[in-house]
Input
Amino acid sequence: MKHMKFIVAAAASVLLCLLAGLTDKEDHRFADMWYQERSASDGDIVLVEIDQRSLEEIGPFQDWGRGVIAETIEILNQSEDCRPAVIGLDILYAGERSGEEDRRLALAAGKYGNVVTASAAEFGPGLGETVPYIDNFKLLSYDEPYPMLKETTVQGHINAMYDNDGVLRHALWEIDLGDGRRIPSFASVIANHFREFYGEGQVEKPPVDANGFWYVPFCGRPGDFSESIGVIDVLEGRVPAEYFSGKIVLIGPYAAGLQDSYVTAADHAQTMYGVEYQANLIQSLLWGDYKKEVMEFSQLAVLFFISFSCVIVLWNNTAVRATVLWAAVVGGYLLICKWVYQRGTVLNVLWIPASTTIIYVASLALNYARSVIEKRRVTNTFKRYVAPQIVNEVLQEDKKDSLETGGRIVDIAVLFVDVRGFTSMSEKMSPDQVVEILNQYLALIADCIMRNEGTLDKFIGDAAMAFWGAPRPQEDYVMKAVRAAEDMRRGSDQLSRQLMKGFGRTVSFGIGIHVGEAVVGNIGSPQRMDYTAIGDTVNTASRLESNAPGGTIYISREVADRLKGRIRVTSLGSSVKLKGKAEGFEVLTLDGIV
Output
């Protein structure tokens, strides 16, 4: 294929741009918008918030002491008949503080066997232990509850780690401490406790990547899990204990000043509190609503194939067809992405639409450039056969009837010119010499007409016809016709001297000019037409030229009157008889321009 190298290069270029990650940020954000949908939760998760009301009534969180949460746990578990299935403390209680309060929290958390506490690890870049490579997920430290609380509860890590674009859309399944211990996630521990409470099996492990992260399909946006139940509401008995019976109760920060909020895939504009992020994880685990992200290599192979196909299809197509095909590919792929996502597979949403759009725009631009170049080439070629003014008139896009037969009456100046003595001279010369001399004369004629803004209608053997005043109106068009004739006469004298030296022969021009109304337009049939002028004015100019001796310019009285005082003329009266003209038609010679 002629453009095969270009096609492969274009498809490969798109592939390299995506491999370089130039569209990753936009792809992830668009995927979040396209994939993440609100879903009604089961209602089994209740948030008990450390909210602004609780802070205002109890005091700053750092002054609460661990007894406040201990009392909250005791109140939630006070009735044996309606205790929560599990209580998750999304608060890191690392290190001992006050012996009495530490003991009270540990006893309250361990007494009922339904409390899960939080731990957290710190990761950062470091050198690998076996080989010298940079490990961005190297465990730097690990914080867990103080010993007494650790002994009486089960722990799960609450690490929330952003993707490279600063959005939380994955969760870490477990942490390997490197000493044989693996710390499960806070959400998975709570989900398993909840299922155990109802006699069900443990949740299945979601598909994870090489670093142990799984894709989170958020069922709620910021605020969706909140029922505005604060710690103070539990402490003061504003919510009946029965409301929490058999449910998952998450206790955690829910105020801006506590700095526990994240930008999530569910909503980029509003941050989500950590306790609600955990609620989303738990609900997803309970549903088993897992999504598997397809390996990039497989998607890149498909992308290359589609990009390659798009270049082939769009390269030589019309703009309308290209647009329809582009819309079909983009729209169809987005629907496929949605369909497979609902069945558990995550595809890069923007890769194929972005590459197809780039190829589509590039193909439109290239095809437009090619059409402009081709149109310019055709127009320039056309202008070598037809007068440029006529070409411009015919090609005007705003004139719908420019290619229809018909004309209009216009006042024009018409000039005919003929090479005198050329026929007899050509009989004595070779064909190549004849063509060479004729072309020089015709080139001179064309140059004089164009230089004076005339429309070269046609060459008729060794003669030519031109007119002024059409197809576009012109100022002083009669004078321009006269100047063109005078230029031809002077140019003919100079050319005659050159031909005499080169060929020993010479010829001259006979010229006729008349002015008046004529029909100008497309004359002929729809299959073949000429843009020309017809009428008595044209015929009269032709008669004047046919009677003019070599080196002479004949004009009519109408031309002389219109240019009175601007040209020098000699009247021949009615001595020159023009075919088809009545007696008394005055013919004049143009002697020069004043």
User: Anything to note?
Assistant: The longest strand covers residues 508-524. Confidence is low (pLDDT under 50) at residues 128-134.
